[in-house]
Design brief:
mainly beta, seven-stranded mixed sheet, four-stranded antiparallel sheet, 56% strand, globular
Length: 111
């Protein structure tokens, strides 16, 4: 079993940056990802990092602006978000091995 806890959410202006963190307890087998849910929308994939080799995958909507990274020593992942847009406003969730979800952290981008 894996438990994940997100942190780092907040409010930022358009074009600003924010860094999310996710600490996990328990053994991660393969994947760690970020997903989000914007108001009135369903869950949307944001980024994934392979715990074994560090390879990454991004939603085209955030590609070039967001960077997902891992910290094996801390059993954590981060999401560096730059050039934030209003449409990035959402609750961001950390998901371990596709099934263990955190409670989410709110990201609000204002103009």
């Amino acid at each position: 079993q894996v438990q994940v806890i997100e942190s780092g959410g907040g409010s930022v202006q358009v074009g600003g940056s924010l860094r999310l963190s996710c600490e996990a307890s328990g053994r991660i087998r393969r994947h760690m990802s970020w997903r989000r849910q914007a108001p009135g929308k369903g869950h949307e994939f944001v980024a994934n990092i392979d715990w074994r080799d560090g390879s990454t995958i991004y939603n085209d909507a955030v590609k070039g602006r967001f960077t997902i990274s891992r910290d094996g020593a801390k059993n954590a992942i981060h999401l560096q978000m730059d050039g934030l847009k209003v449409e990035d406003t959402a609750v961001y969730y950390c998901v371990a091995d596709q099934v263990y979800w955190g409670q989410g952290t709110q990201v609000t981008v204002t103009s």
